[in-house]
Amino acid sequence: MSEQPQQFEQPQQQLQQGIGQEGTKPTINFRDKIVIHQQELEMKFESALLKTKPYVLYRWIFFFVLFFLFLVKMIAYGRYYTIAYIAGLYIVNSLILFLSPKLDPEIYGNDVLPTLGDSDYKPFVRKLPEFLFWQRITGAALLAHFCSFFKVFDPPVYGKILLLYFIVVFVISFNQRIMHMIRNNYVPFTLGKNKAKKNNE
To answer: Any idea where the domains of the chain sit in the sequence?
Structure first.
């Protein structure tokens, strides 16, 4: 009979130990702390960035100042042509997406887009919205400034050749986009008056 209490005491002790282990806070290693802090910083950055969304004019002034300063720096030093070429291609690609409809009229029909003869309100839904477009090209301008401080990103090249390549890419890209607009008879802007908004006013 004396052995039975000992048999019952062992499971109870194990159960209490298990409860104690579950009740303790899980340990967070150094790597997890870095990930958590990184996520917190990203959330704060995105929150701060979203606060600038209503200030369209000031946002674009900021971009053009950045872009102009980089051009002045490039012309003054006669360097950074490769950085300017890559950033320029990225900006052109973003601009093409900004001017492109989210729904291709050649697939979904012309009714989804505002045409030149429309009097009704038809919003132009872009493949790349204005705020994201500004984010991308502003990031490209900031990155161009950052890369200009490192010689590894500034290999010796003939600037006029890169400029010629850029002009060719620009002309071909926009020619394709303009032909797409003409072929489907649409403009990359919102046409007509928003009657619902006017009635609310």
So the answer is: 78-114+122-188
